Each structure stands twice: as C-alpha cells, then as structure tokens.
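Sequence in, structure out. Go.
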Amino acid sequence: MKRSVRIGLLTALAITGAAFLLYGIFTGQAIAVLQKAIRVCLECIGIG
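Output:
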C-alpha cells in the first residue's frame, strides 16, 4: 500500500473517531458510561 494512501486512510479514521467521540459527549453518553463504570467497579470490590 502506498504511503500516501495509508496516511489518508489513517487520517480519515482519526477524524471519524473524533467525530463519534464528540457526538457521544454532546448527547450525554459520557455520563451514562461513567455511571456504568462506577457501578461495575463498586460491584467488583463488593460494595455495590
């Protein structure tokens, strides 16, 4: 694969990933993920 094609593909994937990350933050999904992570951690150590 040519180097310019590889760089273009990686750039497109990085931009797509950043767009999905921002979409999740602006729609409030980051809070839901954090709450689930806290619940799993508390269950893991036996508090929750």
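Check: Residues 3 and 9 are 10 Å apart (CA to CA). The chain has one domain: 3-45.
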